[in-house]
Amino acid sequence: MLISVKLTVLFNEPFWIGVFEIEEDEYYKVSKVTFGSEPKESEIFDFILKNYYSLKFILQKVEEEKYLKKRQNPKRVQRAIKKALKSKGIGTKAQIAIKEQHETNKIQRKKKSKEENESEQVRNFQIKQNKKKEKRKGH
Q1: Which of 1, 26, 58, 109 could covalently link to 101 via disulfide, CB atoms 3.0 to 4.6 Å apart?
Q2: Per-residue pLDDT tens over the stretch 47-89
Q3: Per DSSP, what are the bridge partners of residue 123?
């Protein structure tokens, strides 16, 4: 079982954001964090130590063929990290996962507001009915 965790910090107008990506067997997890102003390395390390386990990850099952990752030479890994640091942006898988999560949150928000609106209308209707009854009764 090989787990790879990657944090990408980038500037997304008007805030700095961090995208955590975890690749684990057949699962791919993503979480997005907004830092606000440009974070220092020490702030990022503190955030990871204190808040990593409270992050909410979006889970996706990888549909691609499962490929085996071999243990790589440390120098090769360092070169890959330097290359990744030069490239800017989030991986497409991460973008897709975040977008899907955004859409599901949007749908849930709409459902919740619709239910609240309907319950408010029912409550107002009941109040009006009670007022009518009171007027009919007389005092």
Answers
A1: 58
A2: 889 988 888 888 877 665 555 567 788 899 899 888 877 776 6
A3: none
Instruction: Give dist(CA 81, CA 98) in Å, integer.
Output: 23
Residue 61 in contact with residue 93, Cβ under 8 Å?
no
- The residue ranges of every structural domain in the chain are 3-106
Contacts 24+ apart (CB under 8 A), 51-56: 52/20, 55/20, 55/31, 56/31
Specify the residue for token string 């007027």. 135
* 10 and 88 Cβ atoms separated by less than 8 Å: yes
Select from 13, 14, 25, 4 the least CA-distant residue to 91: 4
pTM of the model: 0.50
